[in-house]
Specification:
Layout (H helix, E strand, L loop, with lengths): L6 E4 L2 E4 L10 H5 L2 E9 L6 E3 L1 H14 L8 H13 L6 E9 L13 E8 L9 H4 L1 E5 L20 H13 L4 E5 L5 E4 L3 E6 L2 E4 L9 H12 L4 E3 L4 H5 L3 E6 L3 E8 L2 E2 L7 H14 L10 E3 L2
Parallel strand pairs: 7-8, 7-14, 11-12
Antiparallel strand pairs: 1-2, 1-6, 3-4, 3-5, 4-16, 5-6, 8-9, 10-11, 10-13, 13-14, 14-15
Helix pairs in contact: 2-3
Bound molecules: 4'-deoxy-4'-aminopyridoxal-5'-phosphate (PMP).
The site of 4'-deoxy-4'-aminopyridoxal-5'-phosphate has 15 residues, from helix 6 and strand 13.
């Protein structure tokens, strides 16, 4: 996807898409010490809008803080770079990727003496786990890989290197015929998917794991708000894999994955084996909000034009 027309924001300047390159001795390329964000812009009646832009920028700064990385731009400059990535590329809906990474001034592990670079790019991207899966649901398996330990890599940081664990889990799931992995924490409790938070429904109550070993998902937060406003009882607690086996419904959430129903876990059908009624309701409300089809929570949308 590197050889195409378009503009990418790199260190405060708009550069041609195909010229947005780094040197092979880029520190983050070698060791994975970098932080990033993934978010979406959606079509609305009033032009494209970025969903929860400020929340994603805040998380980018929190991730950088955890890694002791100093972002050399203000939050407002970063927000404007995201907005520009949509407008300059004439996008109506898009996935946006922003990243802070260390430069190529030195190769030792210490990074405090290196330049911090920032990039923002946006492109059209459909349903992360496939359009059909949004209705039919996906099949997932427990990963043989344990989720990153809280005192090993920092789970609250959306850090590049943390994703080796995710990639191993996803590769394993895909190569054994599943759509996605569910990772357990080091104590055996459910943590999250390779790039999604998990929710289950049991007896009308919505449960999601605490974020001890999972990313503080921005979609997760949105779903918790939407569910509470709908009068649903919501509980954040430790969840075991067999609680998921006997759930009435289950779904993944993420900026890329949006709200994706889960129809089967470890070869056990979840509920009726189709998208459940509460999942469908929440999914449909989520899409209404991101597309600006409801009057409330307009603060969640950063208008591009
Ligand atoms: N967990 C992981 C590991 C992720 O990569 C993501 C995607 N950023 C999520 C959860 C969901 O987070 P969000 O809703 O903020 O996209």
């Amino acid at each position: 996807m590197d050889d195409r027309d378009g503009k990418i924001w790199l260190d405060g300047k708009w550069v041609e898409w195909r010229d947005a390159k780094v040197h092979v001795l880029t520190h983050t390329l070698h060791y994975g010490a970098g932080v990033f964000e993934g978010l979406r812009a959606y079509h609305t009646d009033q032009g494209p809008a970025i969903f929860k832009l400020a929340e994603h920028t805040d998380r980018l700064y929190r991730s950088a803080h955890i890694l002791n990385m100093k972002i050399p731009f203000s939050k407002e400059e970063i927000n404007q770079a995201h907005i520009g990535a949509i407008s300059k590329n004439n996008l109506d809906s898009a996935y946006i990727r922003s990243m802070c990474f260390y430069g190529s001034e030195g190769m030792g592990l210490r990074a405090d003496n290196l330049k911090v670079h920032v990039m923002v790019a946006a492109w059209e991207w459909g349903a992360y786990l496939g359009a059909e899966s949004m209705e039919k649901g996906i099949r997932i398996r427990t990963s043989s890989y344990t989720r990153n330990h809280v005192n090993s890599t920092m789970c609250k940081a959306k850090a590049n290197g943390n994703y080796i664990n995710s990639i191993l889990a996803l590769q394993e799931a895909l190569s054994s015929g599943y759509d996605e992995a569910l990772l357990l924490d080091h104590e055996g409790f459910v943590a999250e998917g390779s790039g999604e938070n998990l929710f289950i429904v049991r007896n009308g109550i919505l449960y999601t794991p605490e974020t001890t070993s999972a990313l503080e998902g921005i979609t997760r937060e949105t779903i918790l708000t939407i569910a509470k406003e709908q009068g649903l009882e919501v509980k954040e607690k430790r969840i075991t894999r067999d609680e998921v086996y006997v759930a009435d419904e289950a779904f993944f959430t993420g900026s890329a994955a949006e709200v994706t129903p889960i129809r089967e876990y470890d070869n056990r059908q979840i509920g009726s084996g189709a998208r459940g009624p509460i999942t469908e309701k929440i999914q449909s409300l989520y899409f209404d909000y991101v597309h600006g089809r409801r009057g409330d929570h307009s603060e969640w949308l950063a208008r591009v034009k």
